[in-house]
Amino acid sequence: MSWLVVARKDFEDSIRSRWLQGLTGLFVGLVALIAVVSLRLSTGGETISTNALLGANFMGLLSGTLVPLIALVIAYSAVTGERESGSLKLLLSLPHSRADVVFGKVAGRSAALSTAIIVGFVVPAVILALGPLSLDIVSYIGYTLLVALLMSVFVAIAVGWSAAAPSQRVALGGAIGLYFLFVPFWEIIQFPLQIAISALPEWVPVSGTAISNALFLSNPASAFRGLTNALLQGQLFAGETAGLQVAALSMLLFWLLAAPLVGLLVFQRRDL
Amino acid sequence: MSAIQLSSVTKRFGDIEAVRDLDLTVESGEIYGFLGPNGAGKSTTINMLLDFVRPTEGTITVLGEPVEAAGAELRERIGVLPEGFDVYSRLTGRKHIEFAIDSKEADDDPAEILDRVGLSEAADRPAGGYSKGMRQRLALGMALVGEPELLILDEPSTGLDPGGAREMREIVEAEAARGATVFFSSHVLGQVEAVCDRVGILHEGELVTEDSIEGLREASDSEATLILTVDDATDDDLDAVRRLDGVSGAAVDGSMVTVSCEAGVKTDVISTLGEAGIEIQDIETESTSLEELFLSYTDGEGVVEKEGTGTGEPAVATPEGGQ
């Protein structure tokens, strides 16, 4: 299991990064801040449930906007950075295949960032649970894990891109492009698209809902939002959207594997 | 079985031909020095052995396996010190060695390896703070993990002081004594001649000669330069000398005649000049050194750095005796 050795090394290397340590602190701070602000704004009295906290708009913004950004920033240089510094030669001098390197890096870096997420969500919750926060443990853990999954999906996209990119600069440019594609652009086209879909002529063989669902599913950020909304409503993999939720989860897992695989196909043929 | 075999290997990067139609065989158990000036194609060749880059034409087998098809498993049997590598700056020296041990599924003791390459004291410091020489030692340590059958070392003495270069040579010799094949590249002849069974000299992507150090030495000993002070001579007077067997060149500059020839024909040269009516006033003989021989193969492009004087400044010299 050569990729596991690479993953462990990448994890150990990543958690020593000041960036990652700073990010962990940032998550702790932001989650705590959102909790305090939600508490102030709440009209329900002295306490607030974690479900209300997670459902807050700020929280959606934190997970849906900041998490993809951080994943892309941390992982875009995973392969190109090592290729340019030369540490990739040290890595590939050992009995690791290029596939081990790409998948090992996805695993190692996802694990490191997931650690930051878990610390960032759990530490403030535990502290605030002593005070005014009433903790719904199951949904809180579920939400945290879904954020970690979203983070890992964007890490996989970034590492895949990094493996395919010919240089560090292209890798950075592409990462910025991917962010704008998946986050703001997707949001912007939603509304005009809905209008276009509602005006579809009858002869079109697919329904407007199907197109809209496909679009919703293919973006990891919106698939994540669908799943977390269902989770907070106590409807995870239940209710009328159950099928769509399963599809959303499958799509996240598909991204997790397909993005590094496509990057690997390009990387395989390339001279170091 | 040969440890390394390249057959008609060519590598082009765009329009640039880095390696041209290279045939090279390294036998099992030998120490092979791969010599040539910077930019001769040594690293490209080594990168092809490791499947870092792929040949445009030709086939490469290492330890009997075709490199590209064999994949990562082949590298379990090889120790590599690559050129232009970098360390993981946040991880300690010990972590690097442990990583190599885990990667090769070996059972070496990290402390023992670190001691062998002289990094025991720095073992628990992040490698980002290591000097160039220490990084080189660390990568050598990683290469030694798992008692590889073949060691491929690209410019192993880079960044090492003379003492470090000597330790490197001792390690190379110890590994060869254990039975490993060692293939290492250098642009410095001094590092190669002390340890190598055989050397190949690469120049502009082509193997220009391949011999044992003794063979090269014989070639250099047998080659001599005669410097004669004469009363008067023209270039035409030298034609008879140039026709002699064993004379590779002759030139005149005023009263100075320079003849490059095999050591055995020196008297013939002198008597031929006498027959042409040239009066010889003084005779000096210079034998060609191994360094000069190396330089003559590489159009004077090599860097000859004598051990101990290693200031790092390349002392570029051209061979004497207008060849």
Automatic annotation (TrEMBL), chain A:
Residues annotated as transmembrane: 20-41, 53-79, 111-133, 140-164, 170-191, 244-267
Listed Pfam families: ABC2_membrane_2
GO cellular component: plasma membrane
Keywords of the record: Membrane, Transmembrane, Transmembrane helix
Keyword NAD tagged: no
Annotated PANTHER family: ABC TRANSPORTER PERMEASE (PTHR43471)
Protein name: ABC transporter permease subunit
Species this protein is from: Halohasta litorea
UniProtKB/TrEMBL annotation, chain B:
Chain positions covered by the region annotation Disordered: 303-323
InterPro entries: AAA+_ATPase (IPR003593), ABC_transporter-like_ATP-bd (IPR003439), ABC_transporter-like_CS (IPR017871), P-loop_NTPase (IPR027417)
SUPFAM superfamilies: P-loop containing nucleoside triphosphate hydrolases (SSF52540)
PROSITE patterns, per the entry: ABC_TRANSPORTER_1, ABC_TRANSPORTER_2
TM region positions: none
Superkingdom classification of source: Archaea
Domain ABC transporter: 4-229
Coiled-coil positions: none
Entry keywords, A to Z: ATP-binding, Nucleotide-binding, Transport
Record-linked Pfam families: ABC_tran
GO molecular function, one term: ATP binding
Family named by the database record: Belongs to the ABC transporter superfamily.
Protein name: ABC transporter ATP-binding protein
